[in-house]
Design a protein that fits this description.
With 197 residues, the protein is mainly alpha-helical. It has 6 helices and 2 strands, in the order ββαααααα. It has helices at 45-51, 54-91, 97-125, 130-139, 151-157, 187-195; strands spanning 3-5, 8-10. It has a two-stranded antiparallel sheet with strand order 1-2. Strand 1 (3-5) and strand 2 form a beta hairpin. It starts with a strand and ends with a helix.
Length: 197
């Protein structure tokens, strides 16, 4: 009789093995009709989203639309604030410390808006490292004064920024430089192997 103990199946009748098979070194096998996932499978948003039930897709789409609307409102508010600060700076004494501070604040707001716009576009372009891509784009003058990014040049010069993220396989041997013996091994097999048996 198997028991569920702290997230693992425990079968005291079959040597305490988690898989309940009674055989050492054998792990769970995929159910009929299921295929084993290839190691380092690429997770695609479109495929994942289409696999969801229709109600879930609609729920995500509604939330996405709400977030985009909130983002646009925030962007417009930042633009208005920047404009108001520049107008206020124009009314202050020329080259005074107060005018310099207000203009500096307006420039910081503009830089923040540019960065957030870049991140939004970069995500849609498939950039894997947003922060690094922004630094590279600024350094190579690939963002014009209107905030338009030269994505074509960025992709040609730095293709490594557009690599797809791979989902790790999640097995116990991942990241150790080697695979564990068998498909999935239990602790007894590992101990015996280290002991030389």
């Amino acid at each position: 009789m198997s028991k569920f103990l702290k997230g693992l199946y425990f079968s005291p009748d079959k040597g305490g093995e988690g898989n309940g098979s009674g055989k050492e070194g054998e792990g769970e096998k995929p159910a009929e009709g299921q295929q084993k996932k290839p190691e380092g499978e690429v997770l695609e948003w479109d495929a994942f989203h289409k696999a969801l039930p229709k109600e879930a897709q609609e729920l995500i789409s509604e939330r996405d639309a709400g977030l985009k609307k909130a983002l646009k409102t925030e962007r417009d508010a930042r633009g208005d604030l920047e404009k108001d600060l520049k107008e206020a700076a124009g009314k202050l004494e020329k080259d005074s410390d107060a005018q310099k501070e207000v203009l500096k604040l307006a420039d910081e707001i503009a830089a923040g808006a540019e960065k957030s716009d870049f991140y939004e576009e970069a995500h849609e372009e498939g950039v894997s490292n947003l922060k690094l891509a922004y630094v590279v784009a600024k350094e190579d003058d690939l963002i014009n004064k209107r905030g338009k990014v030269d994505w074509k040049t960025l992709k040609e010069d730095y293709p490594e920024l557009f690599g797809k993220k791979k989902v790790p396989s999640g097995d116990a041997g991942a990241g150790t430089g080697g695979k564990l013996p068998g498909d999935k091994a239990d602790m007894n097999v590992l101990i015996r192997k280290k002991a030389g048996r």
